[in-house]
């Protein structure tokens, strides 16, 4: 067994590592056709390039004549672009008690408005401590009032639902025009 840092395994097979007997060859300055593997490698070497297996599951496997280091660089670049385009969903939580006062309620309402304007989802939670669980209706009324006041900035994704000692509701931002 070897210890120490291992080299990451290459994601693509190149040149002599390609195991298929016949391959379909594509690339610039190459006639697209099915070639025996030795002839395909020779075609790549004549242009001082590598033969890279890009689609091993095809029949016959597809190989591209390309500079391998440049090919790997372009693949990494594509992966970065895909990762950058993915949307990250941010969820902000706002917590109330069943007896939250009007001032506190309005303060938290303003925060919720800014969160929704920034494009984050808001999870409004009423936490019932001790015997306050008997005021379930108050908690639900509080959350529905909260949703009603946020109607122009967001819409309800999930209605108030009681989970143990918490009643929560999800709001999502309205699409920008």
From TrEMBL:
The keyword Thylakoid does not apply. Residues 89-174 form the Translation initiation factor 3 C-terminal domain. It comes from the Bacteria. Keywords: Cytoplasm, Initiation factor, Protein biosynthesis. Pfam families: IF3_C (PF00707), IF3_N (PF05198). Belongs to the IF-3 family. Monomer. This is Translation initiation factor IF-3.
